[in-house]
Amino acid sequence: MNILHNKKFKHGSVSLALTIVIIAAVILVNAIFTALAQKNLWYIDMTSEDIYSLTDDAKALLEKEFNTEKPVLITFCAEKTILEASAEQRMALHTVLEIAKIYDNIEVRYVDIYTNPSAVQPYKLHTTQTINSQSIIVAATNKNDQIECRVHSLTSLFSFDSSTQAVIGYNGEQRLVSSLLAVTKDELPVACVTTNHGEVDNDNINYLCNALYETGYDIKEIDLTKEDIPEAARLVLIYDPKSDFKTSSTLSDTDELAKLDAFLDARNAVMTFVDNETPYLPNLEDFLEEWGIKIARHEDINLIIQDSDHSLTTSGYTNVGQYVPDTGGLGSSLVSGLTSMKYPKTVVFPSTTTFAAAQGYVSTKDEDHDTWSYTYYENGVTRISYDVFLSSATAAAIAGGQKLRASELEALGLQDPAKLPFSYMRVTRENHDNGDGTMSHSYLLACASTDFARPAALNSNYGNHQLITYACSMMGRDVVSVSLSCKYFASKEITNITASEANQYTVVLTAVPASLVFIAGIVIMIRRRYA
Question: In this predicted model, what pLDDT tens digit does every residue of 458-480 receive, in sequence order?
């Protein structure tokens, strides 16, 4: 008997063919769906932190501030398959692709820089960042046909535990959205960092400058003894000076402080950081005191504030700043972005000194909130100084290893902290009448801790980085505040769906396919029996 005409052979052949067709169809449908899902970002983010989803805050900020007319090229320095294979790189990839899906002027490309290094060569001329296989380059062309770019390493998109260095959160939205806004501006504001006063001896300044860079500034070092402040500058940063600024009274042929005065008169801002080891700098301190900022000293010894009940260390010198009450004043307005959070972040001031009342300023108490402001008015110049962060009522001022008594504090223009806590940060605004019924302003922000800007303090565990961002936005013209929250990895488990929803997913993803295969098997069996 010919085996080809055998009934069992025919039935078996049909079953085998049908099985092959079904398997091939499943593979084909899966491949097509996977390709479409990757192209159109068809996925459900079931992580409790919504790590793979663009937040509403990011969408709102882009809708308000992003220039949709200027083409933007985002370059990943690795092939897409490699990015998809890495959990960390996949987070950044999804952030970029979700933004690019919304805006037609954003193009995303993938470059293997080992086989095609020339593709990223033009960007190396416009950044100080190292470009490697884990880099993301956000670039556009400005009105002068020059490349504006921001380069991010993979590690810069994440937050790390300061002690274990373990990855604890994803901060890619902050970095990538701020870069998109920066490169599409017609002209970037400049932040000038003063040099030639011992500032560069402190490594923290690099991290502070990086925070300003991410906020949207171009960073430029400036030696005021040799250079004028550029017209595009909106902020001057004075960080941890060790030697004094030159003035005409010191027989110098340049006057650094006169340049700062003119800069502030032009409605700009200055930011300065000092601490308990800042040497006495008479010229600079006279200038700061004109703006309501007086570094407190006892018998020429710098004060350091100890607040054991509100410190992150047992020594009591890594102090947690207390937010000023919401009075509607400038100080509380500056931190409103932080205090409006459900759980306001801790802002830390390690090794901090304090500011005393400046000569010529009249103290005014807000009785409803038990806070103070300080006003200066002379020759048509009006300046109002506000505290931004204070110590707690249990803090103590230490000078030369000794706690100062109440009478000694009062002699310095300070009070018992239970009545008036020590000032860790203060901001002063000068009002300018524009002559048309409107007012414009210039600002000086002073921080009594240089370690406020150290790497551990600027990471996303604390509010220090966001505070810098808010301050730049409030004080600096042409600067957009980009303060998007870090997404912390509380758990890798699926936690944001109910048990009922989980059961539904289980049915859809397991029971339905199994049922379809079972039904197909019954149909085949019946057809075979009665064929």
Answer: 876 789 988 998 888 888 765 66
